[in-house]
Amino acid sequence: MSRFISAIFGRSQQYNPLPNTNSAMLPGAFPGEEPIAPNSGRNSTNSSSMNHFFQIVLYWINYLLIKPIIIFIIISLRILTKFLNIIYFKDQNYQSPPISVTENGAPVPNNHSNDPIDKVNRFVRDLEDNLTAEQILSEGEYLPPFYQGSYTQALYMTTNRAKFLFVYLTNPHNESSSTLFKKVITNPDFINLFKSKDIIIWGGDLTNPEAYQLANSLNVTKFPFLGLLCLTRTTKMSPQGPIKTSPKISLISKIQGGFSEDVDVRVLIQNKFRKKIGKYEQELSSIRSELRDTFLNQVLLKQQELNYQESLAKDRAKKLAKQREHLRKQYLLYRADYFRQLKADKNAAGKAKIAIKFTSGIRTTFLFPAESKVDDIFMLVELINRGYLEDDSAITTISTEEAESKFKDFTMDYKFKLTSPLPPRTSLNDVIDCQIKDVGVVYPNGVLIVEDL
Questions:
Q1: Start and end of every UAS domain (predicted)?
Q2: pLDDT tens digits along 188-216
Q3: Which residues, including other chains, have CB under 8 Å from residue 318's CB and lie 6 or more apart?
């Protein structure tokens, strides 16, 4: 194949044999016949021309067709090879980032992934790779249920819900780590501990920054490390009597480094962990009850605070509504005097004659100046609905100057709408700021119906 490719991609030169030297000149050679000279006619010329022509044709076919096809095939095969390599050999091709090593031989964590769940999943996958086929195919659990989150989250669960926390720390460069894993971590007696909802386990290797920092804070000197943490407190004397200190997280038991093969693992688990859990369970249960009561009290206080704020907001809203209603009444009384004067003026020149039918069935006709705003029609309806227009005692002592200052930012809001009964049924609420003369349904005359919103 290589010769074929070399022949195609090599220089397009024909093999030229060495000239045939007359062997009759050699010593001891037999005498031979004289070579017959080729015919020098037209056939010889045509044959040479045809050979030259075919050589040119073959050269261009090779250059323009065969070489591009072979190049295309080679490139396609390379692309296909890389594609299949990515799909089927992704894990084999993955190169983990380089890990620096400290003076003590411990790896410095490389923070190439910030997802704590991804780190835990990767750690658990590495542990599963060390399992035997019998463990994987067994019906029971072959690994404890590692906490799916960061150590900070696991520690929060431990301190705020008074749980026992196992931490399993490994060094990927420690060859003795398999003993603890095979004899303790995968042991059914150890896995059965986690049937209790108050016991959790978190794990990581030293490439995980949290595991690296945790190992330093716990003063771990050998790996692998399996420790048990929980909240503890002591009792001290005071003038009022014995009191308990505030709970704090403590390491109550641990296994670090390897151990000999003749150690009874069941006894080790019993002495190192089950007895410790039994020793601290009563105190931890008491702490758990106190935390639960504290949480319920906080919820109750928050609910009381929320109810107080809601009540305060309602009182504030009622107060604002009362102040606004008082201001609205003052404004209506101030405007009532203007409409009394307008009602007394019977001159219809330059005015719009508008008939208004109320929801009570009352019908009234009023003359409005053409330059007045449509808002004046709404104001008249509001005054009639409240009875201020006919009540002579409904007067105000507010002067014009005081009114301009007092009602500068005040706007009336109406709980009704005015519509024309004639098609199309136009609503005046949409043109409340326009002048009456610019609204065809009321100028020079019109009929309106009051409808409650």
A1: 122-269
A2: 999 999 999 999 999 999 989 999 999 99
A3: none
Domains along the chain?
102-234+245-299 (3.40.30.10), 345-452 (3.10.20.90)
Report the C-alpha dihedral over residues 373, 377, 379, 380, rounded to 10 degrees: 140
The tokens describing 59, both together, are: 């050269």
- Per the document, the length of the chain is 453
Q: DSSP per residue over 381-435, as a string?
A: HHHHHHTTTT-TT------HHHHHHHTSS-----SEEEE-SSSS--BGGGGTTSB
pLDDT tens-digit series, residues 250-306: 999 999 987 888 889 999 999 999 999 999 999 999 999 999 999 999 999 999 999
User: DSSP letters along 151-176, please?
Assistant: HHHHHHHHHHTT-EEEEEEE-TT-TT
Residues 71-94: b if buried by 16+ CB within 10 A, e if exposed: eeeeeeeeeeeeeeeeeeeeeeee
Cα–Cα dist 407/405, whole Å: 6
Q: Among all chains, which residue has been given the structure tokens 């929801």? A: 359
Q: Quick one: angle between helices 2-9 and 67-88, nearest 10?
A: 130
| Strand 225-232, strand 248-256: pairing | antiparallel
